[in-house]
Fold:
Amino acid sequence: MQSGQTNFVAMAGFAIFIGLSLVITWFAARRTRSTESFYAAGRSITAFQNGLALAGDYMSAASFLGIAGLVALSGFDGLIYSIGFLVGWPVVVCLIAEPIRNLGRYTFSDVVAFRLRQTPVRVAAAAGSLAVVAFYLIAQMVGAGNLIRLLFGLNYETAVVIVGLVMLAYVLFGGMIATTWVQIVKAVLLLSGAFMLAMMVLMKFSFNPLALFQAAAAQYGNGVLAPGGFVAGQVEGVSLGLALMFGTAGLPHILMRFYTVPDARTARVSVAYATAAIGTFYLLTFILGFGAMVLVGQPAIRAIDAGGNMAAPLLAEAVGGQAFLGFISAVAFATILAVVAGLTLAGAAALSHDIYVHVFRRGKASETEELRVARGATIALALFAIVLGIAFKGQNVAYMVGLAFAIAASANFPALVMSMFWRGFTTRGAQASILFGTISTLLLIYLSPTIQIDLLKHSTAYFPYKNPGLFTIPSSFLVGIVISLLTPEPAAQQGFAKLEHQIHLGEEEP
Structure:
């Protein structure tokens, strides 16, 4: 199809999903009267519901649009994103899920600051969270802009503005209750759509994936079945893999989901449900990518979007016509809206709960006041997301999310682990680790080929690797350890016994 050709089936699908979502938001708004409802859905979500919502939050535009596009244009190397996104979940279930639920209230900063001084830790943690949210938002907004431009004939900038405004309505009025149910609906739609699309691709190859891969090799050479098409070199591969694996355990919008369940056991079980759904989905993305490579063709994919983000919708048209393209596009749109809503809620929580309530108001703000600030922060973040989406037009969305994971793995994950499992961790150590991880990752991203060559059009880049995780993750741990050893904090060590008790039993010491 041509970019800008109106697809009425897609428009109908979009309208149905938006209508359903707004109905959910309306019902949720009637129940969102407290900060606990706004941030944590009243802690009333079941394990299965939270598992689907976790999967919905995690299976973003990067997963559906970005990975399929990377595989279609680069071949085998797209697999590192599929596997990398998935293998972070064992880290979450073994290290993070239960302690997070037992220790915190609304944000991961609650956990890091549990036995440390509140103000410096929360300021640093909020900075790390907002950096992750910003890069993650870029990917979703870029995907949304391309999708609506492809289908409705609107220009890219208008499309980004529309997505930002619809998402704002979800979060502003419905909070976490609305966001959770939108995520659940979206997860079911996405799994169903990806499965149907993969089956229709395999049908053309007698349900033999090997025949699909052989067709790709015959068309583009054996190089598409070998590494090196996108990830250049072992250092780049290891760096990206580490960022994807440990970044999962530092994503603020994922960590927030553990506060929506009633207890730690439910949090752990919900991760098992999420892992099953996510694992199934990522296996399908590889079929979608190679299917698009063979049945659509790389020139046609690049002609619509240089980043390859429209490979899956174009594949849907190739195997199922305009009607199926409309359905898959509506699913992709649902995916983007739901994830943007979750990200915005996480960013609003960092600004209102961590910065306003605990830093400016010293923990003395009323619930009504905090809720008002949270909604104001939501509006600011929505406008920020729109600006970022327009500025980063043309980037592959899976790659942009990879950068968000690098920040989460470097800024949030080390401080989270050390605060929960090392008695000697101190306020200064936490502050230094989070800020160093955030700043060093942002600096190396700025010096990388993505910014220096792709955006600024320089001939060379100061830092040769696209993803800095291999360098920033160990450095962040090291900085936290060294600074903690240099600045011992007896009060933090004494609070470790209470922290251990609450991690394991989920209740405060008597």
User: Anything to note?
Assistant: The chain has a mean pLDDT of 82. The CA atoms of residues 95 and 417 lie 8 Å apart. The longest helix spans residues 311-360. Residues 8-505 form a domain with the Sodium/glucose cotransporter fold (CATH 1.20.1730.10).
